[in-house]
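// run 5 | inverse folding | seed 20
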């Protein structure tokens, strides 16, 4: 499931299964999106990829009450694909909630 160039999105009560043979095995992929909340959901990435990946020019992101696994959890940025990135005011609260105000990648 991917959210690209979206604004003001709330998704909840999802059950996402990314099987090993799917083209992209990330559970939820967020890119160039402003104002997204993902909550109360179950994400299974059978191949062990990212449950949630957040990349390029996304802001006002809130993720809470997610059951994830097996997988890498929540990944911010794409390692090796961008020379510069700036993550501002991102906080993880008691390993239960991630709030990221601005994520800029060039």
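// decoded
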């Amino acid at each position: 499931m991917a959210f690209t160039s979206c604004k003001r999105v709330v998704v909840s009560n999802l059950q996402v299964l990314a099987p090993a043979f799917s083209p992209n095995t990330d559970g939820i992929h967020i890119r160039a999106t402003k104002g997204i909340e993902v909550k109360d959901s179950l994400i299974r990435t059978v191949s062990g990829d990212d449950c949630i990946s957040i990349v390029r020019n996304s802001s006002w992101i809130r993720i809470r009450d997610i059951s994830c696994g097996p997988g890498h959890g929540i990944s911010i940025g794409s390692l090796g694909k961008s020379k510069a990135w700036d993550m501002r005011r991102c906080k993880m609260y008691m390993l239960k909630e991630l709030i990221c105000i601005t994520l800029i990648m060039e």
